[in-house]
Amino acid sequence: MVGILVHGDNHFIVRGPLPDRDVARALIRHWTIIQIGATTPPSLEKWHISTKEFREDLEWAVIVPEFGCRVWLSEFGCQSLVVRRDWNFVGNAAGAH
Fold first, then answer.
1. pLDDT digits over 26-79, tens only?
2. DSSP character for 41?
């Protein structure tokens, strides 16, 4: 699965399953704080930053609430994604609950 993890003015294109709230926050902390020599915690090994994906292949998106930016998603061309109001989960119409 390919998704997008958005926080503030930054984003990550990610390969892996839709993360829950705690995992999404942990991924952001892991990928934005430089820790020389650090290894990926086992709990985050299912997700990897991807550099070559097509936006048509996005299956999920998560906006981390304290850094969220829906405007960025619309500018990126993700108009077909549906925002769920509970914690700003974004998914395609088939996957939104």
1. 998 888 877 788 899 999 999 999 999 988 888 998 888 654 455 455 555 565
2. -
Residue 96 maps to a domain? no
Supply the range of the domain harboring residue 77. 2-91
Q: In terms of DSSP H, where are the helices of 1-97?
A: 21-32, 70-76
Is residue 97 assigned to a domain?
A: no
How many independent structural domains does the chain possess? 1
> For 84, left (φ over 0), alpha (ψ -120 to 50), or beta?
beta
CA–CA dist 8, 68 (Å, integer): 6
CA dist., res. 86 & res. 51, Å (int): 29
